[in-house]
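I hope you will forgive my troubling you with a question about protein structure. You will find the record immediately after this paragraph.
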Amino acid sequence: MFKVLIVDDEYFAREGMKKTIDWDILGCQVCGEASNGIEAIEYSKKLKPDIIITDINMPGISGLDMAFKVRELLPDCKFIIITGYDEFQYAKEAIKLKAVDFILKPIDEDELIEAIKRSTKELNKLSLNRALEQERLLLDAMRGRFSDKKSMVDGLREAKIDLNIIRIISIENDSYNERMEEDSMDKSYMQNNGIRELIYKHFKSKCYVVDCHLYRVAIVFEDNEDKDSLEEMLNNFTKEVNEVLNITVTLGVSNKKPLRNIKESYSESKEAINHKLYLGKNKIIYFESILKNDSHITLDFTKEKREMNLLIKAKDKKKIQDKLKSIFTRFKIYKSEEDFIRGVSIEIILEAFSVVKTYDTYSKGEELEEANIYKYAAKLNTLDELYEFVYSYLIKVLNILRERDAAAEETGIEKAVEFIDHHYKEDISLKDVANYAYLSESYLSRKMKKVLGIGFSEYITRLRMEKAIELLREPNTKVAKVALEVGYPDYRYFSQSFKKYTGYSPSEFIKDKKEEY
């Protein structure tokens, strides 16, 4: 509601304007009335009206003189000038004043209403422009883009940002990634607008809402609340967001700080909200509550990733699940960085893919395309989501491997594959394997290609190379010894085969590349 001050030395003129106009419909309320210019100036200081409707000819000082003085106090105030004299000098002064309208008595009600509508339209436009400018300045301050704190505070004060002791609350729409996946920007925009409306409803003290990202808004507000009142207000806010918008939000709440420390306050709110990775969504997370538990320790999961690889080859679902839970428990205990957790999660999946690729059954699962992993992982925001994401991919890999085993059994080559897996280090031929499995060489060759995706020689080479990679990772490894252990009596031939398979000689692999495999 815009506040209107009516100034006229005639009582009935003031009463007529107060009672004949439907101020509510116009989005206005009469905040006061004055019978002369001096009174109007005093009331303006106290009431700070948005619109002043004033007669010109009054005792003491004229309405125009009063308006010029009030303009110095309230530069955004809109004036509607009323006079009984159609004189050019008055009109000229009204133009200088940038009055919205110059209305002759007797007052035409429709003309006055139109003038009030023009005033509110200009005020709304001014309010929007000011809000946008305030939001821009606050965002610059939050991101530390001012040269120093004094110029920052001065700039905020000049923009009429009336804050002293502040808190910042970062709010993230937990449904944002779902909206992006549905390509539903309109729905996301509507939800964000709904969140804004509920912020203004629940925050009674002076507050400003700043769009920081597509998925995050921040509330910068004067914190006069005690802790219990703040918690109650935030609980009510999140509850109504869920009831009205049918979404959940996660809040990161900073400590109290003076306005000059707005950048630090914003950093605290972001750090708090980032802990939804460990605590889950639909939470109110206070920065002060995460300080004690925050320890940044660099973890090394190289051993666990290798063990996971072996468990996948063994197709041991229970142990895979236990190992994965152990890894994610360590993430939570040591508060690992989000990017680090994503990276390890993706590496575990890629390790599993490498097992599938060994048998050339990779193409059977289009859902395992590597490009999809990075895309989906980027959308996940909590440990629980990332755990389920990794586990679901590992189960897909296990199913593909089990399908391969079932196909091998159906075609009668399971026994042949089992023999190769146990004797690949020896000098065996296709004939040896065919005789062991009671199959013809031509049938075995065709079925291996169909089920495994590769022929007999390639399959043995892969088994040998994968075992060589595993052995070369061990400390103080001798290349000649590894060559013998994987079935290559000729060290030079092993080196050639290894380089063809990996792109590196065994010595290069030991020196620089073993951690990449």
Notes: Residues 361-367 have pLDDT under 50 and may be disordered. The domain at 2-123 is CATH 3.40.50.2300 (Rossmann fold).
